[in-house]
User: What shape does this take?
Amino acid sequence: MKRDLLALTDLSAEEMQRLIDRAIELKARRQRGILDRPLTGKTVGLLFDKASTRTRVSFEAAANRLGGGSIFISAGDTQLARNEPIADTARVLGGYLDALVIRTYAQQTVADYARHAAVPVINALTDDYHPTQILADLMTVVEVRGGFEGLRIAWVGDGNNMANSWLNAAAVLGLELALACPEGYLPRTDLIEKARRASGAKVTLSVDPREAVAGADVVNTDVWASMGHEGQEAERATAFAGFTVDSALMALAAREAVVLHCLPAHRGEEITAEVLEGPQSAAWRQAENKMHMAAAILEWVVGGVET
Ligand code: CP
Ligand code: NVA
Assistant: This one.
């Protein structure tokens, strides 16, 4: 049966752990010059409705490095733009490709592709979730901290697709997650409740970034206005005043705390240049890890390797 990755809750804790371990292994193998080719003869399609630097290029590079090919499809240049139905597009593309990596607005859209395409569908970001990013972020935490058990993970900023996906990760893995979001910009309440009910998870929600960051081992932030929120920058800048991850805020975190940012970053808004470029920042390692995680995901869903 094909495996889709539409949300992190599609994975068990064991599957998530195995993807992280395999991504770390593939990274090490690549650094040793070993060529893995599990995608030989396979083609991955990337159908994107929104801009992307990292996710697009990391998936294309991963597909090519693993011996496969990739085709980038800007949705606006297809017949979708002239109202060809998703169901028809999905059936046709599924006949050409071995996997579809999709970046779009509504989560329902990736679910519709998964339903109608005969090949695995991977969510490369929707308004609700960014699962492949959080897998790369978890991999980064494992690399720099040896694991995520016993760590306090803070989220500071918008309750967006990234925050929702961290909640899903907390639900699957039983993480301690301390979120600070301004009033009116909270993550999805159902996801908060679900994560709170999960075994081993501890989820707290505050409107004060200092509360979330106090004693945190990992501090996450992201842009205040995600793709799709264009035009809300000014009102959001007002609502998010005091939510900048700066040195004063980081002073409240654990001494060895690391900072994650999925990028692109807006220096001086959600994070200062000093913190992003400073010794506690793992953002650049995190960005590179996207490719190793993309390789692990593609190998799993296309390469026929069991996890
Ligand atoms: N972090 C991330 O998803 O970046 P892109 O928007 O550049 O893909
Ligand atoms: N939350 C951001 C992430 C970009 C990678 C957005 O959706 O635009």
In short: The beta strands are 43-48, 69-74, 99-103, 121-123, 152-156, 176-180, 202-206, 218-221, 258-261.
